[in-house]
Amino acid sequence: MKKIIALAFCIVLIFTLSACGGSADNSEIKIVTTIFPVYDWVREIAGDNKNIDITMLLDSGADLHSFQPTAEDIIKISTCDMFIYVGGESDKWVNDALAEKQNKDMVAINLLDLLGEGKKQEEIKEGMEAEEEGGDSGEEKEAEYDEHIWLSLKNASLLCLKINDELCKIDKSGAEGYKTNAINYTQKLGNIDKQYELAVSNSSSKTLVFGDRFPFRYLADDYGLDYFAAFAGCSAESEASFETVVFLANKIDELGLNSIIKIEGSDGKLANTIKENTKSKNAQILTLDSMQSVTLKQVDSGVTYTGICEKNLDVLKIALG
Predict the structure, then answer these.
(1) Domain assignment of residue 174, yes or no
(2) Are residues 10 and 91 in the same domain?
C-alpha cells in the first residue's frame, strides 16, 4: 500500500513540476525535516540566518510510525537543498520520494546511518507484548532499528555536529555562524545530559515501568536504566493482555516503585489498569514526552527540544525517587 501511495504522489509530482519548474528562489537554502526534534536542532544551528528556510513535515501532530507524505510534501522534498529524516522502518516512503527529486544536488541525511554502530535494534523485553508477525514465516526478517534516536541527548549532540558539517558545505558564507551556533547548542545539550547523569546517580531506583509503548530505550541505555513496558517503542498495539498487566503490576510491587509511566497522547487507561492491579494501588501515573506529536503551533508558542528534555528530567526524578 505504501508503495502504491508513494507512486501516486510521484506521478502528481511530475505533472506539478512540469507546470512550475524552475520558479524556486535559488538564493534561499531550503531544508526539509520530517520530525520536530530535528527541525528544532536545525533552527538552533541556523540561528538568525534569514537565508535558511526550514520545513517540518510532521507539523500537525502526526505520528512518525503512520505518516504518509502528501503530494505537496513530496514536492517540498524534491526541490529542497537538504532533507533530513530518521531512516527507520517508518521512513520506507523516503526512497520513492528521493528517486523523483528535482534538485540533483540535494543533500539527504539519514540519521540512523549517521549513528552507525550507535543505532540499536528493537528489542522485546520480558513481559512485553510481542507484535503479530505478518508475511511469509519462512522469510528471514530484516533487523529493525529503534527509530527514537532523538531521545538520547548524546545522540542529539553528535547528530547536530554532523548536520552542521553538511550545512557548512552547502552555505560556506554562513559557515562560521553555523559552527558557533552548533558549538553553543551542543554545550547546552551536554549540560542537560550531565543533569540527567547526576539525577540517575542520586536516585534510589534504576528501573522504570511503562504502561504504554517504550520509545525511551536510547535514553535508558545512556544512563544505565532498566525498564519494563507493555509494548515496544514502535508497536502499533494498544491492547495489553491480562498477563502483561499482571506482570507489570507485580514488577511495581516487587521493586517497590512509586510510579507508572505513560507517553504523551496516551489516555492512561492501561497505566491505570496496571495501577489497580498492584497491592497498594497508589502508584503515580507520570507522563514522559517522546516528542512524537509536537505541532508547529506548539513550536510557535515556544516549545523546544531542550525544554521538553528538561521537563522529562523533572518527571524522571520523581519516577526514580
Answers:
(1) yes
(2) yes
* Segments forming the whole domain that contains residue 263: 203-290
Q: Percent helix, strand and coil across the chain, each rounded to 5?
A: 50, 15, 35
CA 1 to chain CA centroid, nearest Å: 24
What is the pLDDT, as a whole number, of residue 63? Answer: 79
DSSP sequence for 87-152: -SGGGTTHHHHHHT-S-TT-EEEEHHHHHGGG--B----TTPPPPPP-S-TTSPPPP-B---GGG-
Confidence at residue 100, expressed as pLDDT on a 0 to 100 scale: 83
Based on its alpha-carbon atoms, the radius of gyration of the chain, rounded to whole angstroms, reads 21
Q: What is the pLDDT of residue 15?
A: 43
Q: What is the pLDDT of residue 180?
A: 98
State the first-to-last Cα distance of the chain, in angstroms, to the nearest integer: 46
CATH number at residue 262: 3.40.50.1980
The residue whose grid cell reads 520530517 is 34
Entry pTM = 0.90
What angle is formed at CA 209 by the lines to CA 34 and CA 279, rounded to 5 degrees? 150
* Residue stretches of the chain with pLDDT short of 50: 1-2, 4-6, 8-9, 12-13, 15-25, 135, 137
